[in-house]
């Protein structure tokens, strides 16, 4: 009986294992999903299919796309190691993603059949700088010349890139967005700078987490259209001066998690057209000095958050900007601030203000900012800061504090009667006369004392004058 039961269990297990393996085999052979919104928009989803090589042809449905249509093909999370030449794709704008594969090599002419390729994601692979070369992106070979492709966005993030080939972007004249984040670049060497400078239409450059700590002064030379730069999670101790070279076009700067100690009047020199600035998660940042933001004449959004040691912002940080104020959103959340000056900025001109996560001292100055200048109306719902001190107000919303002893919060009209002699009482007049007489007497006594001392000095202490004689004519020496 026992042996028969054991055999039945083993048979059931064998059936289950065989079934699971069959399901896995079927899953590996599941065709890519095709989603068609209309004749102008098609998505070919080949994600998580255990695909290890580029297909030789596409499903027939792909050919139904209108010639002006948009096509997205994604091979996300497969095991492709080599990108060979990709079959032609119809449509006016084509996007292909190879994110999270095992790519270590890309063949020449890999994208030459897709002249309208505008978006290419090669992130999260094992691509090195040696693999990246201009031949990868060259277009069709016609009349002895290689053409260009329409590539606008290239994502190379999370790879093994140390340097770029100087001719890498030779066949991508329309490149506007380049993501190099999370690569061990460390140093922007000469050939990398030549490669970057050749991408003259570049608008977005992501260099976050690339282990760089400096940028050569001429790094952005020729990039007159550069609008957005991300330098987060690197080793900068100051904001790179080289950014001023693109100050006329730069609109968005992200500068999070760098070991800077302070921001000062040199930090953002030349960035006159910057619209949004983000400086957060900088654990070493302690102070924002006078005139720090003065060059930012068009700034609209300021993120100064999550700097856990930031405890001081100068009341002149926005010096020269108050008459032509452009800031609409200011976020000061999760710092180590306890006080701010009422003169820091025109608080009533803001649209959004964030101040949560700080150690606010609820004193007269803060009450002035929140109540008199209307900052309390700029907090978003559920984002109202708390008082940390004094103890009697700890935990209270700063919008609820009332400090009647603060003169700036006293709305009652003050008595401003003018002064006249009729306001004086007789005793006041008497006290005044006695005080004048006393001062005069003391002055006379002091004068007499000084004269007496001088007289004594002249008679008793001061040396007699030296007399000179002619010993030849004096008879007492004869």
Short characterization:
By secondary structure, this protein is α/β, with parallel strands linked by helices. Helices cover 17% and strands 15% of the residues.
**How many whole angstroms does the radius of gyration measure?**
40 Å
> Tally of extended strands?
23
User: pLDDT under 50 segments (min length 5)?
Assistant: 5-29, 408-419
Mean pLDDT over the residues: 87
Order of helices and strands: HEEEEEEEEEEEHEEEEEEEEEEEHEH
Number of domains: 3
State the CATH topology of the largest domain: Leucine-rich repeat, LRR (right-handed beta-alpha superhelix)
Profile the largest sheet.
Answer: 14 strands, mixed
Share of helix, binned: 10-25%
Structural class: alpha/beta
- What's the level 1 CATH class of the largest domain? Alpha Beta
Structure write-up:
The protein folds into 3 domains: 26-182, Ribonuclease Inhibitor (Leucine-rich repeat, LRR (right-handed beta-alpha superhelix)), CATH 3.80.10.10; 213-332, Leucine-rich repeat, LRR (right-handed beta-alpha superhelix) (Alpha-Beta Horseshoe), CATH 3.80.10.10; 338-408, no CATH class. It is α/β, with parallel strands linked by helices and 478 residues long. It has a 14-stranded mixed sheet, with no helix packed on it. It has a 3-stranded parallel sheet with strand order 15-17-19, with no helix packed on it. Residues 5-29 and 408-419 have low confidence and may be disordered. Helix 3 (364-372) links the parallel strand 22 and strand 23. The chain has helices spanning 2-28, 190-198, 364-372, 426-461, and strands spanning 33-38, 41-45, 70-74, 82-83, 93-97, 105-106, 117-121, 141-142, 145-146, 153-155, 177-179, 204-206, 228-230, 252-254, 262-263, 276-278, 287-288, 301-303, 312-313, 329-331, 352-354, 360-361, 387-389. The protein has 4 helices and 23 strands. 17% of the residues lie in helices and 15% in strands. The protein is elongated, with a radius of gyration of 40 Å. The termini are far apart.
């Amino acid at each position: 009986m026992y042996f028969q039961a054991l055999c039945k269990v083993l048979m059931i297990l064998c059936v289950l294992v065989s079934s699971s393996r069959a399901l896995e085999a079927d899953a590996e052979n599941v065709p890519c999903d095709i989603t068609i919104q209309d004749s102008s928009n098609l998505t070919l989803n080949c994600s998580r299919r255990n695909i290890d090589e580029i297909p030789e042809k596409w499903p027939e449905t792909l050919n139904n796309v209108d010639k002006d249509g948009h096509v997205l093909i994604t091979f996300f999370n497969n095991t492709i190691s080599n990108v060979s030449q990709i079959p032609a794709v119809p449509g006016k704008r084509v996007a292909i993603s190879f994110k999270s594969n095992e790519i270590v090599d890309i063949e020449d002419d890999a994208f030459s059949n897709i002249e309208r390729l505008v978006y290419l994601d090669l992130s999260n692979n094992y691509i090195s700088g040696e693999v990246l070369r201009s031949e990868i992106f060259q277009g069709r070979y016609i009349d002895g010349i290689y053409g260009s492709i329409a590539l606008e966005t290239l994502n190379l993030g999370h790879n093994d890139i140390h340097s770029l080939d100087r001719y890498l972007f030779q066949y991508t004249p329309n490149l506007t967005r380049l993501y190099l984040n999370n690569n061990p670049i460390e140093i922007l060497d000469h050939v990398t700078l030549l490669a970057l400078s050749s991408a003259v239409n570049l608008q977005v450059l992501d260099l976050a987490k690339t282990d760089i700590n400096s940028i050569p002064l001429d790094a952005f030379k020729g990039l007159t259209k550069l609008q957005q730069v991300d330098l987060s999670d690197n080793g900068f101790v100051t904001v790179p001066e080289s950014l001023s070279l693109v100050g006329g076009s730069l609109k968005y700067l992200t500068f999070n998690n760098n070991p800077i100690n302070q921001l000062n009047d040199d930090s953002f020199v030349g960035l006159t057209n910057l619209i949004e600035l983000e400086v957060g998660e900088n654990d070493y940042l302690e102070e924002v000095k006078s005139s720090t933001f003065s060059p930012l004449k068009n700034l609209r959004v300021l993120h100064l958050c999550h700097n856990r040691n930031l405890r001081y912002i100068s009341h002149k940080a926005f010096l020269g900007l108050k008459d032509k104020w452009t800031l609409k959103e200011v976020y000061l959340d999760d710092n180590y601030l306890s006080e701010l000056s009422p003169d820091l900025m025109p608080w009533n001109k803001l649209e959004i203000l964030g101040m949560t996560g700080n150690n606010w001292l609820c004193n007269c100055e803060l009450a002035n900012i929140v109540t008199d200048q209307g900052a309390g109306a700029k907090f978003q719902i559920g984002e109202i800061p708390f008082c940390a001190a004094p103890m009697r107000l700890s935990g209270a919303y700063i919008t609820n504090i009332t400090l009647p002893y603060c003169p700036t919060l006293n709305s009652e009209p003050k008595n401003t009667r003018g002064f006249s002699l009729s306001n004086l009482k007789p005793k006041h007049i008497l006290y005044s006369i006695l005080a004048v007489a006393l001062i005069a007497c003391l002055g006379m006594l002091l004068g007499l004392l000084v004269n007496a001392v001088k007289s004594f000095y002249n008679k008793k202490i001061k040396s007699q004058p030296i007399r000179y004689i002619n010993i030849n004519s004096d008879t007492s020496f004869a």
